[in-house]
Design a protein that fits this description.
Largest sheet: none
Order of helices and strands: HHHHHHHHHHH
Number of strands: 0
Oligomer: single chain
Structural class: mainly alpha
Distance between the termini: 71 Å
Strand content: under 5%
Radius of gyration: 23 Å
């Protein structure tokens, strides 16, 4: 419609024009986010993709950019999942995410972090959102990114390549009030990736501290940074840690079993393979010739 000349206005009345109730159960909420992300991926891979649809029409570039942002956002699941796994990889291998950088680069990085923090504070003030709600949104952004958005990418590719429509679970619109069920878990495969990432980082913390104690307490500052990044991931995935430790509303056993298996496989692979280690220690061909 916009590409054909439709002009919209921004309307925000004092009285809410539309009201709805989102599911407070974490499993149902993830299924709802999966449904939305599937739609975005399907539009991205269709002939109506906003990247090229309506070129030469009346769609303005800022409008096109807004539409592109609303369709490509599930793709952030790939780097987000990678960054959630990297702290554990660094603790397993003894390497670090960041290479040695100069003072100018360090100041630039700190300035970027402060600007992001300032942006979050301004958004909280403008939207009149409390710090509890903001932090809950940050947690769910990570949880949804490493689960629902990740599943939506693969299911969208299956839909585009095979024309098979993956099924999704509809969510209940019944208002249950408050956040009493926020940490309740029901079986869904969407719970496995974040729980696996949580366990990998917990195992990485233990492995990193054990390696530090055995190495004679060297490079404690680097270890502190590694533990900080791993702890940051664990804090964002805290609802799953609470589900593992709680006696009530406990996480389904099948989710725990699959997550433990995947975490152990991942950990053992890094311990045995360790791709950052150079295994060839003998002389080269140039040094000893054909007799090597």
């Amino acid at each position: 419609m916009h590409s054909r000349g439709w002009r919209s206005i921004y309307c925000m009345p004092k009285r809410a024009a539309f009201k709805g109730s989102a599911p407070t159960n974490l499993s149902d909420r993830l299924n709802q986010v999966l449904h939305w992300a599937q739609g975005s991926i399907q539009i991205l891979l269709s002939q109506h993709c906003p990247i090229w649809y309506g070129l030469g029409g009346r769609l303005k570039w800022l409008q096109r950019l807004a539409y592109i942002n609303s369709t490509v956002y599930p793709l952030t699941a790939i780097p987000l999942t990678t960054y959630c796994a990297l702290p554990a990889v660094c603790l397993f291998t003894g390497k670090f995410i960041f290479p040695s950088i100069s003072l100018v680069a360090s100041i630039t990085f700190v300035g970027l972090c402060l600007s992001i923090l300032a942006t979050n504070i301004l958004e909280m003030r403008w939207s009149r959102v409390g710090i509890d709600e903001w932090w809950r949104n940050e947690q769910f952004w990570v949880i949804g990114g490493v689960s629902a958005h990740l599943f939506a990418i693969f299911q969208g590719l299956i839909k585009a390549l095979t024309n098979i429509d993956p099924s999704f679970h509809s969510t209940s619109s019944k208002d249950r009030g408050g956040f009493s069920e926020l940490y309740m878990f029901r079986w869904t495969s969407l719970l496995i990736p974040p729980t696996t990432l949580l366990m990998i980082n917990l195992i990485g913390l233990i492995a990193g501290i054990s390696s530090f104690m055995e190495s004679g307490h060297h490079a404690w500052s680097i270890l502190f940074c590694k533990l900080f990044f791993a702890s940051w991931v664990i804090i964002h995935l805290y609802p799953f840690l609470r589900g593992l430790m709680s006696h009530q509303n406990r996480m389904p056993t099948i989710v725990v079993i699959w997550s433990i298996l995947l975490a152990l496989i991942f950990s053992l692979l890094w311990v045995n393979i360790n791709p950052f280690t150079i295994r060839v220690t003998g002389p080269t061909v140039e040094q000893c010739g054909i007799n090597c």
